[in-house]
Amino acid sequence: MPMHGKFECNLQGCCCANLRGQISKDEIEEYNFRNKNGQIYYLMPPKDWTINLFEWEVKRLIEIAKEKNVNVELKPNIILFDEKQKVGIAIGWNLEHDNCPFLSNLKCSIYTERPLACRLYPLKGIFEPEDGTAFVFKCPRVDKNYFGAKLKMAEALKLLRSYFGDIFYYSEQNHFLNRYTIELIKFITNKGKFKPNRSKPLDFFRKKIEKSKMYGLEEFLQLNNIPIEKYVKQREELQNIESFKKMMDTILDANGSQ
Asked: pTM of this prediction?
């Protein structure tokens, strides 16, 4: 539907059930490219993807599951691998459930602590100005063709902000936290602490990966006695949604005034 008014969730639970398989053509191409060319690998085929989780979210979900006596299974999906050290670093985890185990009577039982992937739904945080579309997950409230016309990026983002409100900010927050992850990867590779394999397909390493130790990115830094406080502070500042909103509004409104 074209963007009119404000997006409102009708609480059908679509975002929490039948999670597997909500993937785009671009994501399949990304999967094929990465697993063929190396450095970053996807351990699971796209048909098995549900929601992608950050390292700190995995830790918190495990804690919440214990508190609520809920069975939750989480597996590394997006990884880097250092063959020499026989060590993998996971930068994305998959929720291994067709339906979210925290869904109860079509309501989220951990709403105030739900992961970022849930907060940004139905946006995927991808916009294509060439054909005027924004990519979204399957949702009865929206379709992907919001604009139907070519728009400048700043103009499109303002429209998304107006229509989606907080969801838009969470989507952009996800983008910035992914950039934070990339910067950490660059840091440990430049320091020589981790050398991800490049230019070799996943199948070449799969058996070795299965037998290797797997760490989260921040966990790996701590184990290697690399001071992590300033990076965690940077990440926590990005996670503060109120200050993040102010930053995004400043950026977008400045672009509009030029």
From this structure: 0.88
